[in-house]
Design brief:
This protein is an alpha+beta fold. It is built from three helices and six strands.
């Protein structure tokens, strides 16, 4: 596995475990994140700067994010993922994610995530 894919793998595992220090260690100081998802008020709005990205991502409970496959070209990693997020009312959100990570000097500089609910999870 390449260094860039390892950074993305560490980032995803740390994110699901709510290990914000480890998530931060995977980001560049000027990192940027945009998440595209139906039903989210801030869908597509970029968040800039490591501290702002971390604050924007903070979640109240652990969740699972697992990459089914990753592809890399130059310093860009694309990950096809599945997420399972426990919701307050006891249900679980199951979604499919395509995440694009641009890396620089061993850290994620820019990421875009495209999220859709999987209405037929297996």
């Amino acid at each position: 596995m390449t260094l860039n894919k390892k950074v993305v793998e560490t980032y995803q595992a740390s994110l699901g475990d709510l290990d914000w220090a480890s998530v931060a260690s995977c980001l560049t100081d000027d990192g940027e994140r945009a998440e595209w998802a139906d039903g989210f008020r801030a869908s597509g709005v970029p968040v800039r700067g490591k501290a702002a990205v971390i604050q924007d991502m903070e979640a109240p409970r652990q969740f699972e994010i697992r990459a089914a496959r990753m592809a890399e070209q130059n310093d860009v990693v694309v990950a096809e993922c599945m997420v399972r997020v426990p919701l307050p009312e006891g249900r679980t959100f199951v979604g499919q994610v395509c995440a694009v990570y641009e890396l620089q000097d061993g850290g994620v500089k820019r990421m875009s995530s495209f999220v859709a609910e999987n209405k037929h999870p297996t």
